[in-house]
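User: quick one, sequence for these tokens?
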């Protein structure tokens, strides 16, 4: 147990934070992918605070608070990445296209996703007024997806096990997709929020599918794209739309339709309510 921890620790700490910071800053493509998100997350925080000033009902404020957490988590995460705090260098295992080479791992991104994506799903679940059991199951599957994705990125002992974790992560993802496309969509229609939920659902499903694709094609997977900077920009571009644009559309609708959000048409005892 202790040997395994030390092995992971040594794998991630072969380069100091200062060295990692310098390497990131010297790579214009990589550093820009991080600084752009820091700036956009900061602007999103200010904008969302302003947009939420007129929201008063419990359910609407719950949605607003969950959504506001997304850029708050993101700005913290991207500061960790750009500083070198949540960046490591791992040696790829035999069988990988870059076997034996040290590759930068932005493992801090997985921490971001493990904290921010549950907030996105919480906001969507509140919007659709889904029951507590479904909300818990989907958020738990989402966290499982992020944690096993992190494992897939950090395993250096076996190329096969990296992909095994990737498959498990995708299996968790299927649970999230199934709920968004079926059960939650039906609940939103009953709650009177079907139109905006449909828009946000399509946006979420399409954009979230991009993350495992980038992993598979990038340096962590098949390394068809060997540039860490390009891979980072792929993730960062998805974050911009899946987080900030998504949150803006949701909050704008909630602010303009607070009465609909407050007076859910569902009467099930298990539905999520900020007043429970």
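Assistant:
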């Amino acid at each position: 147990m202790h040997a395994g921890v030390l092995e992971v620790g040594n794998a991630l700490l072969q380069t100091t934070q200062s060295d990692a910071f310098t390497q990131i800053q010297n790579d214009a493509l990589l550093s820009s992918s991080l600084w752009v998100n820091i700036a956009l997350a900061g602007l999103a925080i200010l904008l969302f605070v302003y947009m939420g000033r007129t929201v008063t009902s419990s359910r609407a404020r719950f949605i607003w608070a969950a959504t506001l957490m997304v850029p708050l988590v993101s700005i913290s995460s991207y500061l960790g990445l750009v500083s070198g705090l949540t960046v490591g260098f791992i040696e790829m295992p035999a069988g990988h296209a870059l076997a034996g080479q040290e590759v930068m791992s932005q493992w801090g991104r997985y921490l971001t996703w493990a904290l921010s994506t549950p907030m996105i799903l919480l906001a969507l679940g509140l919007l659709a007024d889904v029951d507590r059991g479904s909300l818990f199951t989907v958020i738990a599957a989402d966290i499982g997806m992020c944690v096993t994705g992190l494992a897939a990125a950090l395993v250096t002992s076996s190329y096969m096990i990296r992909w095994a974790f990737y498959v498990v992560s995708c299996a968790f993802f299927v649970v999230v997709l199934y709920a968004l496309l079926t059960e939650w969509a039906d609940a939103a229609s009953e709650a009177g929020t079907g139109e905006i939920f449909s828009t946000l659902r399509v946006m979420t499903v399409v954009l979230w599918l991009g993350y495992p694709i980038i992993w598979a094609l990038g340096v962590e997977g098949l390394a068809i794209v060997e540039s860490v900077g390009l891979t980072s920009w792929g993730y960062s571009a998805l974050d911009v739309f899946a987080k900030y644009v998504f949150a803006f559309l949701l909050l704008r609708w909630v602010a303009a339709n607070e009465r609909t959000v407050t007076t859910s048409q569902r009467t099930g005892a298990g539905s999520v309510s900020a007043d429970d």
